[in-house]
Amino acid sequence: MSIDDRVINIDELQLEHFQQGDKFESRSARVGPRLGAKDLGYSYDVLPPGKTGCPFHSHHAEEEMFFIVSGSGLLRYGTQTRKIRAGDFIACPTGGADTAHQIINDSDAPLAFVSVSTMKPAEVCEYPDSGKIGAFGSGAVRHLTRTSQALDYWDGE
Predict the structure, then answer these.
(1) What is d(CA 3, CA 35) in angstroms, rounded to the nearest whole number?
(2) Are 58 and 95 in contact (CB under 8 A)?
(3) From edge to edge, which strands make up the β-sheet containing 72-77?
(4) What's phi and psi for 38, nearest 5 deg?
(5) Which end of the chain is more exposed for a tag (fewer CB within 10 A), N or C?
(6) CA nearest 27: which of 58, 49, 59, 57?
């Protein structure tokens, strides 16, 4: 790759539209793969007014960081909420429900941010609002279930 392949400006990104129901919507670009990143994942997301891009969740393997590029919104983090605005850095280390996080655009203008995460070969995420847990791994490993449906370690052995 040439040096020019390692750099892209926000205004050059081709944002893809995503929508799930009435609550989740964004325009996003996964930037890391485009630039040849290996150990960090990063993307640029724009949330329309009144929307969020993902469910309230926590990570057990991957750490995330967000930088608010423009706009303002609301950060849910554990049991707390706070206003966020352009220029804010947000740290989301690994952990359980205490580190669950979600960015919500509660304003009347778009909210744009950059997210950065460590890329791990395996990940477990918890979703406190819905009681789900997800296991994700390299390749096609992707399994979501509810914590209430837990099996005993020896079940079926």
Answers:
(1) 10
(2) yes
(3) 80-85, 72-77, 101-104
(4) -115, -45
(5) C
(6) 49
Number of domains in the chain: 1
Q: Would you state the structure tokens that stand for residue 70, as one six-digit string?
A: 């423009």
Residues 6+ apart with CB under 8 A from 23: 51, 52
Q: Name residue, tokens 């129901």.
A: 21
For residue 92, the enclosing domain spans 17-120
The 10s digit of each residue's pLDDT in 84-136 is: 999 999 999 999 889 999 999 999 999 999 999 999 999 999 999 999 999 99
Structure tokens at 63: 């750490």
Q: Nearest CA to 19 among 47, 58, 57?
A: 47
Q: Is the pTM of this model over 0.90?
A: yes
Tokens 């914590």 -> residue? 147
